[in-house]
Amino acid sequence: MMRAPASDLPVVLENVSLQAGGTAILDRISFTIAAGTPTMIIGPNGSGKTSLLRVCMGLVEPTGGHITWCGRTDPTPTRRAFVFQRPVMLRRTAAANVTYALAQAGVPLSQRTKRAAMLLERVGLADLANRPARLLSGGEQQRLALARALARDPELLLLDEPTANLDPAATRAVEEIVLGAAQSGIKIVMASHDLGQVHRVAGEVAFLARGKLCEHANAADFLDHPSTPEARAFLRGDLVI
Questions:
Q1: Which pLDDT score is estimated for 1?
Q2: pLDDT tens-digit map of 4-46
Q3: Is there a domain that residue 86 lies in?
């Protein structure tokens, strides 16, 4: 009898809170991440976006409430990957960064070189395979970080403002990779404070303010008919404190 492939979806948060030094970073958030279109986590700086992603990845344990991955409470990733806003590049070539990620994912040695070449092609870095990763531009490094994440064959890909420090051309390149991953069936959960990016990428939106989940809605509904004063202020470009 064949075993079904392991899954991390759905991710279910129930009244999840996160405290640090007496400050509520996340405040009783209930939220489900299921397969489907990209979910954008948006909100002002300091609203808890990165912390929510880290909790969903299992990098941070909630101080209240609980979280499950496909019904499991063990936070060890099965088929999920995380890309940080400022990814750390290993002191080796772009290709070697990807083959290292493939090794960590348990891909057999005989397959790594071919798989790495395919992943670099997928993110548009095939011509830079032998360049030291730390000499790549910011946009190229972010695309390499995506290739390393995709090396894990994730079902869920969590992205922490991956285009925050990039110019428009580099942003477009990253967004195209992200949308391509979504079209291939990978669930994307991406933090952003860029409303233009919400229009371009999001299928649904989770809006945070002061550590609270204020709205969770279809992206078009959220953009056209926000239901909370905080969301309306954010969409107008007002400061939400």
A1: 41
A2: 457 899 999 999 999 988 899 999 999 999 999 999 999 998 8
A3: yes
Look at residue 110 and tell me if it is in a domain. no
Q: Which residues contact 236 (CB under 8 A, 6 or more apart)?
A: none
Q: What is the pTM of this model?
A: 0.94
CATH code at position 221: 3.40.50.300
Assess contact for 53 and 41: CB atoms under 8 A.
yes
In angstroms, rounded to a whole number, what is the distance separating the alpha carbons of residues 29 and 115?
38
Beta strands in 21-88 (DSSP E): 23-33, 39-42, 64-69, 80-83
Q: Which residue has the tokens 């709205």?
A: 215
Residues contacting 216, CB < 8 A, separation 6+: 31, 204, 205, 206, 207
Note whether residue 39 is domain-resident. yes
Reference 188, options 150, 214, 225; nearest CA is 150
Per the CB < 8 A criterion, the answer to whether 92 and 22 are in contact is no
Distance, in Å, from the CA atom of 54 to the CA atom of 48, rounded to the nearest integer, reads 10
Q: Where are the beta strands (DSSP E) in the chain?
A: 11-20, 23-33, 39-42, 64-69, 80-83, 156-160, 187-192, 204-209, 212-218
Contact 189, 182 (CB under 8 A): no
What is the per-residue pLDDT across 44-66, written as a single tens digit (0 to 9) for each?
Answer: 988 999 999 999 999 999 999 99
- The strand pairing partners of 209, in sequence order, are 212
In a domain, 113, yes or no: no
Per the structure, the complete domain to which residue 169 belongs is given by 11-90+156-236
Domain count, the chain: 1
